[in-house]
Amino acid sequence: MVTRRNILITGASSGLGEGMARQFAARGRNLALCARRLDRLTALRDQLLAAHPGITVSVRALDVNDHPRVFEVVKALDEELGGLDRVIVNAGLGKGQPIGTGRFDANLQTANTNFTAALAQCEAAMELFRARNAGHLVVISSMSAMRGLPRNLTTYAASKAGVAALAEGIRADVLRKPITVTTIYPGYIATEMTGRAGRTPLLAPAEKAIPLLVRAIEREPAEAKVPAWPWVPLGFLLRHLPLGVVAKMG
């Protein structure tokens, strides 16, 4: 297994991004952390350096919907850390309303952040990896990507399915190269985003789920559902159940 020393994580100021940063720092990895909230990133950097003084942590303010800025930041952090080994495309948005209820603005924002901005991040990362013929691209999708879902999840699920297909297409393109592409499908993990969603079934505590997430990334599989239980069997069911049953679950 290749050890990736220099890791970039987008959306690192909270939730899964922050949790992954803490886990990788404990493993002695150097980090490049990006998010819109620079104050939170700076506080996180200070905490990580205090706990793990042997690592390097660089931070940048980044709105991933500013596509030219995505390329600038990825290149700058690549130079600052002496070459990125892994880029984790994690920044995302959980807004959404039923289609046709007058909230195209919320659905468009979700689609742009979860898919178009993810495309920009993948492009920026793959430019680096193709140039050096090495690297690990990680795309954070969602178990919601397994099927089309109703109500507030419709656009979110579609955007996460789209980004999973994007990652698979990139993987197909580099199958014969020493570049690895991993798609992670997190189940319901307790974060600020899931907290805003209200009552969520099968919610896994972050302190248990995020270490599993990092371990899955370290294995560098093509795909992983995290936590494996119950999401591997549930993922199979979601793919094959009648739509009427899925609609009730959603």
Structure overview:
With 250 residues, this protein is α/β, with parallel strands linked by helices. The protein has nine helices and seven strands; from the N terminus they run βαβαβαβαβαβααβαα. A seven-stranded parallel beta sheet has the order 3-2-1-4-5-6-7, sandwiched between helices. Strand 1, helix 1 and strand 2 form a beta-alpha-beta unit. It is globular. The protein starts with 5 loop residues before the first strand and ends with a helix. It comes from Amycolatopsis cynarae. Belongs to the short-chain dehydrogenases/reductases (SDR) family. This is SDR family oxidoreductase.
Quick description:
With 250 residues, this protein is of the alpha/beta class. It has helices at residues 15-26, 38-51, 67-81, 104-132, 154-173, 192-196, 206-219, 228-240, 243-249; strands at 6-10, 30-35, 57-61, 86-89, 135-140, 179-186, 223-226. Residues 5-192 form the Ketoreductase domain.
How do the helices and strands follow one another from N- to C-terminus?
EHEHEHEHEHEHHEHH
Radius of gyration (CA) equals 17 Å
Q: Helix count?
A: 9
Instruction: Please tally the β strands and state the result.
Output: 7
In helices, the fraction of residues equals: 40-55%
Largest sheet: 7 strands, parallel
Strand order of the largest sheet: 3-2-1-4-5-6-7
Strand content: 15-25%
Cα end-to-end separation = 38 Å
Estimate the mean pLDDT confidence.
Answer: 93
Outline, from the CA principal axes?
globular
Q: What quaternary form is this?
A: single chain
Structural class assignment:
alpha/beta
